[in-house]
Structure formats: structure tokens, C-alpha cells
């Protein structure tokens, strides 16, 4: 009986395995070094921002309007405008993104049309944000004459993060075990009842995480809102959404002009005075805190809404 001669000898095989192990270790070391370099750079930037900005933070800085004098300038209109715009963004992007993901994942037939839509959704996630600003300028302002308002800013940022929410929602729906769907259908539920009462509650943690990730991107965007006319200096607040008189809810703030935290920072950092640069650093600290708070809300909601079906 003849045996097939091995392609490599035993010694050559050991040498190849040893060389491959050395290459793997070198690649791992290189990856760790790149990661440490990136973390050190990030820590250095955040540390510099904190060192310069924290001494400027006080109650007056949060409650005063912008001023031409650096020592009297505040970010009241900027952080209020940011909060209102984020409310509109979430209110528009969440239902549209979830509905689109439900249709593509649960209802749409797998053909070239849905494939074309999926490819374009993935491509839209990488489109530069300035393109969304130009789209909003031509569509909402010039075509629909909606004006430079909080509503338009929320709409353009909702379009910006919509692909992120759609992708996150689809991944969350796919992670729900098929046993849940089959059990609900076996008990007599139709497809919508199955989705509403069983699938969506199981997918909500991932959906909300996708929303918060999208909002974390939107809160720092500057190009789209500058394109649609965000103000760099504003010394008044929009009407309050809640009022003491009936019907207790006011929607006039949607048509009000606005400013955002990134816009205010851009205004201050473009000035030659060093005190305005300190103000920009302090506003950056507040922006980081707002982003961390949103991520903290996401973690809290994931724990509270974790599906009992997944254990």
C-alpha cells in the first residue's frame, strides 16, 4: 500500500507554524500600539479641553445669552436650541426608521427593488452631511418655503441619522429568535400582532441604542444646519413648548429661529480673542456632557427594556 508523500516535511511544517505565530503576535502588538496611540491622542485632546473649559463653567455661563464681551457671554440660547432640535430629530427619525425597517425586514418581498433600496440605505449612511444640508435648503426652504426654523433643522438631522436607525432596527429584529414568532403565530396571532406584542418589545433595546447613536452624531453636526441658516448669534429663546394656559401645548417654537452648540463654538473659536476660545472649550465640555448623558440613557433603557425572552 502506497502512502501519499506530504507536501511539507515535519520540520518545515513546524517552521511555518512558528513563523505564522510570530506574524500573529507582531500584528497583535501593532494593533495594540495603534489603539493606545489613538486613546492617548483622544485623552490628550479631552484633557486639554477640560483644563481650559472647566474654570469657565458656572451658573451664569449656562443661563446667559451670547455677548460681544467674552466674560459676559453664555450658551443659554445654544443649549436650549440644541435640546429642541434633538427633540424634533428623535420624534421624526424614530417612527420613520422603525417603520421602514419593519417593512424591509418583515413585509417586503426579496427582489431587485428591495435590494436596490437596501443598497441605497447603506450608501446614504456614508454621504457627507453637507449634502443633506443642500437637500434641505432646496427642498424645505426653497420649494416648501418653510423658513430657517427649528422644524427644518430637526428634519434635516432626522434625514441624516435615518439610515443609522434603519440599519440598527433591522439588526435588532434579526436578533429576535424565530421561536417567538412561531409561538405567537401558533397561538392565533396575525403578523402585525406578532410584531407589535412580541417582536418589537424584544427589539426595543437595540432600536433605542441605534437612536441614541444617531442623536450623538446629529448633536455635533455643523454643516447641515449652517446651510439652512442657523444663527451664530441669537439673544432670545423660542416660545416654550409647554404653557400654563389651555391647551397647555405650544407649537410656535417649531417656526422659531435657532442656534446650536456647535454653531456657538464655531462662532467663538473663529474670533481672535483668547477669552472666546476659553468659552468655546467650556461649551465643548457641556456638549460632551450632553452626549454622555444620552449614552447613559441608552444604557439605562437597554437594561430596563431587556427582553425576558432572551434570558
What are the salient characteristics of this protein?
globular, 311 residues, single chain, mainly alpha, MetI-like fold, 2 domains
Question: Uncertain runs with pLDDT below 50, 5 residues or more?
Answer: none
Percentage beta strand:
under 5%
Number of domains: 2
Please tell me how large the radius of gyration is. Answer: 26 Å
Largest sheet: none
- The CATH homologous superfamily of the largest domain is named MetI-like
Q: What is the tally of helical segments?
A: 11
Shape descriptor: globular
The average pLDDT value, as a whole number, equals: 84
In the CATH hierarchy, the third-tier topology of the largest domain is known as MetI-like fold
Distance between the termini: 57 Å
CATH class division of the largest domain: Mainly Alpha
SS elements, strand count: 0
Helix amount: 55-70%
- The string of secondary-structure elements, in order, is HHHHHHHHHHH
Label the CATH architecture of the largest domain.
Answer: Orthogonal Bundle
Which assembly state applies to the chains in this document? single chain
Computed structural class? mainly alpha
